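Morning - SAJ inputs below, output right after.
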Amino acid sequence: MAENNQKVCVIGLGYVGFPLAVLCAQKGYEVFGFDKDEKKLSRIENGENIVGEEYLDEIIPKVKISVIRDEKEIGNCDINIIAVPTPVDEKYFPDLGFVIAASETVAKNLKPGALVVVESTINPGVCDEVVKPIFEKAGHTVGKDVFIAHCPERINPGDSKWNVTNIPRVVGSFDEKGLKMALNFYKSIVSAEVMPMKSIFEAEATKIMENSFRDINIAFVNELAKSFDLMGIDVTNVIRGAATKPFAFMAHWPSCGVGGHCIPVDPYYLIEKAKELNFDHKFLRVAREINNGMPLYTVELLQDALNLVGKALKGSKIGILGLSYKANVGDLRESPALKIIELLKERGAQINIFDPHVPGKSTSKNIEGILENSEAIVVATNHKEFMEIPPEKFKEYDIKVVVDGKNCLDKEKILAQGIIYKGIGR
Ligand code: SAJ
């Protein structure tokens, strides 16, 4: 629970910052939220669950989050959490603009002696080379009148089991006092292990390692999917077979691409940092190339399947089921579906889109609507609504080809309808 009425300010009220702010308020902190997006602030004032995570629904009505519109009010807070995006630009170069802006805002208004924790995912060295100098330039002495720590976020949007209340954390700082302050804070809100790292660099490296681990393992099964497809082997059955081994194997699944705010982005932070030190993370680079190539691979599967029924991509009516980067959420960031649509349009296909979680960007209002306007279907997101489509329905609407980009449909039943089915590696 909160110590002696400490005030917490969360800078960045997205899928990471907002749940954290709610949790801090629930644990007795006086919580303030700061965000550039006025809409978010007013929605929070209206008591809305602005990230839509169900576990927050019952907590929000019982807690108070005060929004800050005058950044000077940050100066009342004892603990400042920076939870802003760390994207990459179109050339996959890290964009620390949000972290820099947030750090400058906090540094300008800092309460002397306050703790500043960066939760945004960053590469080793960012706290030392980017964040710390900002506070020093503002006249603060790190370890004396400001304490800086890094506690990388581990939010998994849409996960009904793991969330900010129970996910273990790692924490690193520049100094003992900063580490102690950060450990005390996270131990007061998280009902899971909070592991102190030997340095802030180790804390930065931990998260990048976690997500790079995921990216290379997905690339591994994506490459297997391509080779096993040529051998007529269903890679998903082989993965299930390998997963019967109770140790030393961790299943990942091939798909039409790797999206989201983290997995396809974080490895580039490490690749670029190591490049500064003349080290080439070729393995990470190759994994990124494989995963970035999956949308094109999916389009080529569709093209070959259409050719089997005497059709070309050009002029064909293609229905895209799903825009979001992962199941049952409405988040488009780095979504492979967007790349697939771009590639199909370049090849002259006529596109229809339906994603129940992204109605604003769907051209059809429902599944029947998209099926009646399509000759072939690409499943780009494994939303539960799509997995419930009876295979007969594809036949009913005379769909000739189904490309299952998330291997989430019943292959045998679709084939039994006389429809060409192509999965990713199955
Ligand atoms: N994907 C595959 N094959 C897999 C797993 C995922 O193709 O075996 C694809 C998904 O379809 C999606 C992308 O990769 O497009 C990312 O999937 P994700 O499940 O990692 O989803 P994120 O990015 O929302 O959440 C991840 C967290 N996910 C899990 O560990 C399950 C975790 O890595 C981080 O806590 C989080 O990013 C973060 O914030 O860094």
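Note: The radius of gyration is 24 Å.

O.
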